[in-house]
């Protein structure tokens, strides 16, 4: 168990224990005069404090109720700590060491153990496709790969922003092999179409599923899909599925998906993939999608042995997505966020280093290290059947968009 969490649990346990002792003591004091009164014992009749007994019972009752409330509060908190369902606040960071590691300081201390030789590689002749590469982590990763000579396909939804990014990457790296493709990753029809064309024109060694979003209200895409799910989960599924045959043709093919440590608070939920019921909480929907990306990676690793799959947490980095989707979090954290390049470091390492490919396929990484996909004692493990069912559901849904022609009815 992480040290901070252990400390928080111990604090809870000692409060629960001291309140429980107090309540037992108090009960003993209250039970004595009560039982004497009700059993007709005369012992108290001559006692000088006898008139004060009702007051004594009243005060004891109030203090007892207060202590019981505190006991219940601490028991609930203890349960929340163990299940990680506590609403995460920056002030709680001592209880969440994995969150502290996600800060800039976490990167700085982890990077002391990085081997610089891992990234001293020439990837000329290898082809990389990065979604959402016009800004943030995706653009930073694209630059690093371009610097090492790789051919980079930028897949972005906005032509103007994408062209600016391409210009910046070419100017800064001197690499002319940077290509632009305009695709909306929340639109499965567009993805299928793009992938079909891409397969006939290019080769692909490494796919980086980086595009992601956190939409805080329930909004639908033009195909009637919930936007977070469409971008983070279904988009990742369709693009990867469509490009697997191309990747399978290459040696040392890799697929890297940029997930988030936020997924640790979620157990896979396949009962409502598009969050159509209950209260919509964008942060939790995003975390659920990011959990789904981890499951996708694990499942692909089992079924496609010739490709190396990995999924990762970039830490908390100062990017447009964080500023716009989580303004309160950004205000509190802005001085301790990682740079975009620091957030992209593990993506680049997974994409280009030979060390990464030596590790088993299907793992979750933070700062160049495989890390667990569940927190200790958190009840986030799902039955294996659910993981396979998720793949079946995504396959079924994605196929609907493969065959849909313009003008066909919208899906779900
Ligand atoms: N920054 C962090 O602290 C952090 C932490 C954990 C995980 N992540 C993950 O890191 C990844 C990159 O995010 P970022 O922080 O670097 O934010 P960012 O700079 O805003 O990058 C997100 C990228 O995804 C693109 N995108 C979003 N929806 C898209 C769609 N439907 N089609 C095509 N592209 C789309 C955005 O394009 P536009 O510019 O057109 O919007 C942008 O290029 C995301 O998957 C995010 O969930 C980030």
Automatic annotation (TrEMBL):
The gene is DHRS12. Gene3D superfamilies: NAD(P)-binding Rossmann-like Domain. It comes from Meleagris gallopavo (Wild turkey). Pfam families: adh_short. The keyword Methyltransferase does not apply. InterPro entries: NAD(P)-bd_dom_sf, SDR_fam, SDR_member_12. This is Dehydrogenase/reductase 12. Signal peptide: none annotated. It comes from the Eukaryota. Keywords: Membrane, Transmembrane, Transmembrane helix. The chain crosses the membrane at residues 21-41, 53-73.
